[in-house]
Amino acid sequence: MSEAQKKFYLTTPIYYVNARPHIGHAYTTIAADVIARRHRLLGDDTFFLTGTDEHGQKIERSAAAAGIPPQQFADQVSAQFESLWKRMGITNDDYIRTTEPRHKKGVQKLWKLLCDREKIYLSTYTGQYSVGEEMFIDGPPGTIGPDGKPTETVTEENYFFKLSEYQRPLIDLIESGELDIQPEVRKNEVLSFLRGNVANQPVILSEAKNPRISSEAPLSSTESTKPGAPGLDSQTWDGSPQNSPQTAIAHSAKGTPYVPGALKDLSISRSSFKWGIPVPSDPNTEKDHVIYVWLDALANYMTAIGYGSDDPADQEKFKKYWPADLHLVGKEIIRFHCVYWPAFLLALNPATAGKKPEEVPFEVHREWAKEWLPKAITAHGWLLFEESKMSKSRGNIVRTETILDAFGSLLTTPTEASRRVKGTASAVPQSAAEVPSSSEEPTQPTKAEQDLFASDVVRYFLLREIPFGQDGSFSFDALVQRYNSDLANGYGNLVSRTFSMIEKYCDGKIPEVVHLRPSVTDEIKSGLSQFNHLMLGNELNKAIEGVQYCISIVDIDLTASAPWKQGPGVSDEFQKLYRADVLYPAAEAIRVITALLYPILPYATSKVWAQLGLGDIEEAARTGQLKDLKWGGLKPGTKLGPLSPIFPRAPKELIQTMTDMEQNNAAKPAEPAGLPHVNLEIDNPAHNHTEFREAPISSESATPSLNPIAESTHPAAAPRTSALEEHNPGATVGGSHAVTTERNTPSHTEAAASGLFANAAAASSIPDTPQIAIDDFVKIDLRVARIIVAERIPKADKLLRLEVDLGYEKRQILSGIAQWYTPEELIGRNIVVIANLAPRKMRGLESHGMLLAASHGEDGKPVLATFGEEIALGSRLK
Question: Are 305 and 106 in contact (CB under 8 A)?
């Protein structure tokens, strides 16, 4: 690696082998692959790691139920993950398995170092254990765990890690940005967890907000009666006590309050089962311990690049790539990666060995963190299927293989008819199928090519549809719609139209431009700059949106210029020059767009690059040709390659095909031989576990994994109606506003107005609106949209013409809000649109949809419905 070349080491979570992979696993891996490809083309020495986590009691029991050894069980499931990534063209540099000897050796070295640093001690522990989630749960015997099954009462000897010592250092590192957690909402969740329940603690003021706590600080009423008890307050343990945590308020280096002692020590071994990495021998115990699955699993990020190896080459590799530049994880496992993992790494610092927390200055932790802690941890959201989190128990799992098989069938040998330009000499191809014939006959695509083509479809949809870091919805309908609108009708059609005209009018060679067209060149240059900035921040969906905007600009210019039309009196020579002025910038724009899309659509862009006459795009990426893109890089005279469709249009029937495939798969699960049909939440594998709940999280926006009881579906959650104010508790009558069942019937002369007029007659604030059935409501399709164009309509004082982006398509809507809103303040605003309202014409313009707004004040001023947080365009309101 040259001095100028930077290293970039990124990882996915390693996936738990409790069940086969689904599209949620693919989402994380695809995002990592895109980022890895991007860094490689920028010239960074990139190392991309993924793999599987294969230890734990859950695997041991599942293997026993299947009648096979745990290793065989793990081998079969891990093979499915590795096979799928190869099928999808994932470019990981290594695939780590926690059952490999290299990993076991590294984990045991890590254990010994933590012991040498005096960060591990032996004790006995009793608590409620969830086998399905490999975690202890707060509660009495019989408590229902996060997997919906009763916990087991476990009493066993464990080793504990002194996690409590790292509360203040972790808070300071995260607040200072030394440990970068993204997005901001996940960072706040972690900080909330580390700080504890500040609101319920007494405050002890000290000079300069000193974090040290008075020895007379009172204990919280929720504190364990056994001093220094590790883990959860309600669980008991025996052994030498630690220093009792003082539950008063202290302050971080930045001045934010936290509760010392809110972070408890962590059990890091198990002695009640055998399937795991053995704890190195210890004369203090006669029991055989295995290392806790999370200490075992997290260490893969180091063992995969040589940690623990005696081989000098492996040691040099570790020195070269560590620390990780980016851990990509699911939002439900942020505690393990943002609390436990950094604490384990901080504990390796020899400068802290045998010392108490107050004896170690923060600068010691900071300097160690620069060399040992991951540079960034980014948590993505959940992938929802029909608005519900994918899980095996819900039966809404979507296998990536279904999409590969279905969309792969679209890639077939083009027929002669579909490859020939249609129409007369003045016609121009308008669809991706209409490409000119070539002297070279295209060959039948292989199954591998079909898989890579379909993988591009999955990659594009997931990254375009879901803002990275947020939850996103998946459906077969949306997949087909997005494919057709953006790829078949968008990028693919632009490529087909442009290359067909160059083939027809320019002898298949890139023409030489005479006059520049700023309308195209300026937009592409601006889009290029924005794309680079967005990719740097891993804002993948916004980067793709920008590229799609550039595609639409070029397509609009091509249509408006109509180079296929030759007007009366226009000479052939002038028409030739005019066509060159139109087609060169279109072709050059395609070159730039294709280079930008390469990490996202590696297979499709390789085809476009070859058709553009530029050869192998993989070679171009390796040699730096895609790095510093400049306008004008496409040389006139370049001969186009053989042309063929890039993105054949997907028929609507494909939706039903994929649905049927998934239903058939659900009815007959295709597990490996001997592999049980494990009925667990498939999106909670190791690296998708629900977290160990040491303390409550107060943040209302907290991920359920950090505060599972806050989720309304949790067994311990309060009823959904508990947050609603009761006007007269215990006396309200269901289905009405009455507060009593007693009723006095007045005479007919005293009878109050009834029906629609009752509330008005009583001067009630309850609206006099007729009731509708639920069947009526579900007919209304309310969708999230963004206003991308807003302008006044001449001679229409009240109307504005809006163009809105619904995610899956763009529409024009006319709205009578001109006297309350200016066009400038509307652009970029997210709104709610009635999407299934029949189109109608107003002032000669079609309006397709209606904005949702409240009417305010006597003049009926409309107030547009909007959102206080980011939400994917096209999301349906229910």
Answer: no
pLDDT of residue 736: 29
**672: left (phi > 0), else alpha (psi -120 to 50), else beta?**
beta
Task: Report the distance separating Cα 816 and Cα 800, nearest Å.
Answer: 6
> What's the burial of 764, exposed, middle or buried (CB within 10 Å: 0-12/13-18/19+)?
exposed
CA-CA distance, 275 to 58, in Å (whole number)?
A: 9
According to DSSP, the β-strands at 15-16 and 7-11 are unpaired
Rounded to an integer, the average pLDDT of 129-141 is 76
pLDDT at site 789: 85
Residue 719 has pLDDT above 60, yes or no: no
56 or 217: which leads in pLDDT: 56
**Distance, CA of 329 to CA of 190 (rounded, Å):** 14
Model confidence pLDDT, tens digit, residues 547-557: 999 999 999 99
What's residue 839's pLDDT?
A: 85
Rounded-to-integer distance, Cα 472 and Cα 381, Å? 7
**Poorest-confidence range of 170-179, 417-426, 795-804?**
417-426
Torsion, Cα of 545, 547, 553, 557 (10° steps)? -150
Q: To 10 degrees, the CA torsion angle through 94, 540, 80, 477?
A: -170
User: What pLDDT score does 709 carry?
Assistant: 31
Mean pLDDT, all residues of the chain: 79
Per DSSP, the residues of 406-454 read HHHTT--PPPHHHHSPPSSTT----STT-----SSPPPPPPHHHHHHHH
**Contact (CB, 8 A) for 327 and 337:** yes
Could you give the CA distance from residue 32 to residue 25 in angstroms, rounded to a whole number? 11
Cβ pair 245, 260 in contact under 8 A: yes
Is residue 183 reached through a cis peptide bond, with omega within 30 degrees of 0 on the bond before it?
Answer: yes
What six digits make up the tokens of 865? 């419905």
- Residue bearing the bigger pLDDT, 151 or 427: 151
DSSP 360-373: S-HHHHHHHHHHHS
Question: Which of 200-209, 402-411, 561-570, 736-745 is most confident?
Answer: 402-411
- Dig out the tokens for 507 from the structure: 């002898």
pLDDT at 234 over 70: no
Decide which of 876 and 169 is more confident: 169
Q: What percent of the chain has pLDDT over 70?
A: 76
Tokens read off for 461: 């949809």
Tokens of 520: 């195209």
Q: What is the bridge-based pairing of β-strands 15-16 and 388-389?
A: unpaired
- Cα separation, 322 vs 305, in Å, equals 8
- Stated as kind and residue range, the H or E segment containing 294 is helix 293-298
Q: What is the pLDDT of residue 440?
A: 52
What is the rounded distance in angstroms from the CA atom of residue 87 to the CA atom of residue 665?
19
In whole angstroms, how far apart are CA 216 and each of 247, 538, 599? 10, 48, 59
Distance CA 280, CA 288 (A): 9
**Amino acid letter, 213:** I
Phi, psi for residue 558 in degrees, rounded to 5: -65, -45
Residues shown for the chain = 878
User: What's the one-letter identity of residue 521?
Assistant: T
Q: Which residues pair with 152 in a beta bridge?
A: 129
DSSP conformation class of 359: G
Average pLDDT over residues 158-179: 95
Q: Which residues contact 771 (CB under 8 A, 6 or more apart)?
A: none
Look at residue 98 and give its three-state secondary structure: coil
Q: Kind of pairing, strands 796-805 and 810-815?
A: antiparallel
DSSP state for residue 220 in the 8-state scheme? P
pLDDT at 348 over 70: yes
How much is the pLDDT for 506? 94
Q: Name the phi and psi angles at 626, rounded to 5.
A: -100, 5
User: Which two three-digit tokens encode residue 731?
Assistant: 């006396």
Q: At what angle do helices 23-41 and 447-465 cross, to 10 degrees?
A: 90
Structural tokens at position 602: 């590696």
519 touches 561 (CB < 8 A): no
